[in-house]
Amino acid sequence: MAKILIAYYSRGGNTRQMAQCIEAAARQVEQTEVTCRPVNEVNPRDFLDYHGIIMGSPVYYGTMAAELKKLIDDSVVFHGKLAGKVGGAFASSANIGGGNETTIMDIIKVLLIHGMIIPGSAQGDHYGPVAIGAPDERAKTECRKLGKLIAELTVKLHG
Ligand SMILES: Cc1cc2nc3c(=O)[nH]c(=O)nc-3n(C[C@H](O)[C@H](O)[C@H](O)COP(=O)(O)O)c2cc1C
């Protein structure tokens, strides 16, 4: 069984809606066990229990919210122990060009520094799903794609 964690911060619910879309799609993939939690309910120790970890945040001044960054910084005690796990990222901003991709790349940099494996997407949102405000149908489709992609790769590598 491939275990996947979706950890997100969301103050207004937009990023949470994205997380729920990703969760629903990942659950469709056989041999997965998917957990979706806000960051205040995630302990960095939890990361050890999962084979795939997806993180999402609203864009705050072009990067992730401090709440997600704190969880990440607290994960330093497990540095080196997350290597080989599968990772992904998603973000919601207020504006087009408001920093979704810079935020996703900041999260992806963290996952890479942890030694994780990050799949890209040749079509659509290349780095991870982005939404302007609440996810519209386009963004929801991208979220479902990420959930499926991460789940399938996690099963392939760790199932
Ligand atoms: C402190 C703060 C900083 C923000 N910075 C940006 C920003 O740089 N660019 C942008 O497009 N939106 C910015 N926003 C708007 C949020 O990213 C946007 O409303 C997002 O959809 C909120 O997601 P949530 O409903 O999951 O909390 C900011 C909001 C706050 C509260």
What does this structure look like?
The chain has 159 residues and is an alpha/beta fold. 38% of the residues lie in helices and 20% in strands. Strands 2-1-3-4-5 form a five-stranded parallel sheet, with helices on both faces. The longest helix has 22 residues, at 137-158. The mean pLDDT is 98. Bound molecules: flavin mononucleotide (FMN).
Give a brief rundown of this model.
This protein is an alpha/beta fold.
| Shape assignment | globular
The proportion of strand residues reads: 15-25%
**Biggest β-sheet strands, sense, barrel:** 5 strands, parallel
Strand elements, count: 5
Q: Strand order across the biggest sheet?
A: 2-1-3-4-5
Helix content: 25-40%
- Using only CA atoms, what is the Rg? 14 Å
Query: Helix/strand-derived class?
Result: alpha/beta
| Low-pLDDT regions | none
What small molecules does the structure contain?
A: flavin mononucleotide
- In whole angstroms, how far apart are the ends? 5 Å
Query: How many separate helices?
Result: 4
SSE sequence, one letter per element: EHEEHEHEH
